[in-house]
Design a protein that fits this description.
By secondary structure, this protein is an alpha/beta fold. The protein contains 9 helices and 6 strands; from the N terminus they run ααβαααβααβαββαβ. InterPro entries: ComF/GntX_DNA_util-trans, PRTase-like, PRTase_dom.
């Protein structure tokens, strides 16, 4: 048996071993829905039906809130003016930070449980499914509201993501948004730009609006080239928008010409 045949045979054996291991694990601990724990799938049809999608025709362009096209009660913005102001060095660019904001669904029903199962429970098999939900939201926004979200993904040069802190990575064993971003970039056919690092270690879920804004300011640093790029910035949950402002502002300050933000969920 020559070397190519040996490597092919070894790959076949490894694949069979993985399949056997997966079947054995499924027999001992069957797959259950992350939203309701029904057996059979990671996200069942019932939980998918219970998600509350955000209509891109009426979402706030500035913060992703479900109803903010005329006047957003969350950030004070609308389609014409207002909304999140640029922070720090990004203000010099005169850009809206982020450029446009979109969330796939409202943070309610089974979605918080699904996100916790992935983010804190370590159910990493959810990453491609959550990426699909975000891709569907972005494509639907481009098609349903082209005057507001036209080119959201279609005109982008690359996909990037809000990274976890070193402490969060150590605690979880993976960067939850990196895995979603890799699946997202493969689905939309855009390169992944892993260009941000996050400094600090505090968990923003325990902070109020002012605390989140203070924590996010200066927390993100670009460590890769972004000059001249149009980027889609991914995050899991928008609460106040401080995280996206901080991350997008750092990218714009480093030379990105446009940064749109896409999240899986919007607290509202």
């Amino acid at each position: 048996m020559d070397a190519p045949q040996w490597h092919a045979r070894r790959a076949l054996w490894a694949d069979r071993a993985r399949r056997a291991g997966a079947l054995a694990l499924e027999a001992v601990a069957p797959t259950r829905c992350a939203g309701c724990e029904r057996p059979g799938s990671l996200i069942c049809d019932r939980c998918l039906a219970e998600l509350t999608p955000i209509d891109p025709a009426h979402a706030c362009l500035h913060c992703g809130a479900p109803f903010g096209d005329l006047l957003c009660t969350e950030c004070g913005g609308g389609d014409e003016e207002g909304g999140f102001a640029p922070d720090g060095d990004a203000a010099a660019a005169g850009a809206r930070i982020p450029g446009r904001c979109l969330a796939a669904a409202v943070f309610e029903g089974p979605l918080p449980r699904i996100i916790r199962a992935y983010k804190d429970g370590g159910e990493r098999r959810l990453a491609p499914l959550l990426a699909e939900l975000m891709v569907d939201a972005a494509i639907h926004a481009e098609e349903a509201a082209p005057e507001r979200y036209g080119g959201f993904v279609g005109a982008a040069d690359a996909v990037t993501f809000v990274p976890a802190t070193a402490a969060a990575f150590s605690r979880r064993g993976f960067d939850h948004m990196e895995e979603i971003a890799r699946a997202f970039s493969a689905l939309v056919g855009l390169p992944l730009a892993d260009v941000l690092v996050k400094h600090g270690s505090s968990d923003q879920r325990a902070l109020d609006r002012a605390g989140r804004a203070l924590h996010a300011r200066g927390a993100y640093e670009p460590v890769g080239p972004v000059a001249g790029l149009r980027l889609v910035l991914l995050d899991d949950v928008i609460t106040t928008g401080a995280t996206l402002r901080g991350a997008a502002g750092a990218l714009v300050a480093a030379g990105a010409v446009h940064v749109d933000a896409l999240a899986l969920a919007r607290v509202w």
